[in-house]
Amino acid sequence: MRDDVLFDKIDLHLIRVLHTVLTERSVSKAAVRLGMHQPAVSAALKRLRDFAGDPLLVRSGAQMVPTDAALRMVAPAASILQAAQMLFSDARSFTPTLDRSTFRIAASDYLDPMFLPQLVAQLKAGAPLCQIDILPLSASSDYRAQLAQGEVDLVIGNWPTPPDDLHMARLFGDQVVSLVASHHPAVRRGWDAPAWLAAEHIAPGATHPGARGVIDSFLDAQGLQRNISARCPHFGLIPAMVASTLLVLTTGRQYCERYLDRLPLTILPCPIAFPRMMYYQLWHERAHASASGRWLREQVKTVAAALKSGLAPS
Predict the structure, then answer these.
(1) 115-131 pLDDT, tens digit each
(2) Is domain 176-275 classified as CATH 3.40.190.10?
(3) What is the CA radius of gyration of the chain?
């Protein structure tokens, strides 16, 4: 019998019978351990003998003993069964303290600047052996394709309307405000919508191909356009740029508040009524049932909730 034909005829159940019969050295004891009727075990053993071209188990006085060929099969059979158990149990269960998974997270830096540092700390505290890759959301990246191809496990960011072809969980909503230097004229005089639109704005780079951003998408829908005089792909650097210029950054209040104690900045209300900025985590169907994926999403949710409430995640 050719090896490929033989391989097609062997299933995991036969390997389990083989290993149990050889370790128990008794068909009747193997039947009890396997929860099978003895004739069924005998039939399976006959098939295994035919495949091997060897009796596998022979009588020696009052006992049955494995043949030399059978003894060489015990370790490989145990290895196959162990691998099969790991193969499917890992999909159903997840032990964070023992797991060596690599978590790949694509995230916008428009988030609260404390979010990613606290998320990494939370992940390493719960799964100390894990690897973590934080990837950027940029105009050159296609996060949908990355999620579908398994290059990314989770995407975190803000969208006016999240894509409906992915699984989604809302993390939190935030008020849209403007961040300006403390010496900005609007701090003293205030501003109306025309003055706000005419002011010099700084905007971040796109988070994915064709993205307009939540602020400009909303303005477009109202037939409005602001005066963007500067762009920067590094969101974390923008507050320092704002502090020393007359530029205006418009984003979530939670982000802006992190910089008030570090830089001479002031938060002003927007004279245009923007909807709340909504932050989400997105994932693909391929990771939806994964135990490690569920654990990862729960950590993200915990950190987001703790930051929103002003508490450190436990």
Answers:
(1) 999 999 999 999 999 99
(2) yes
(3) 31
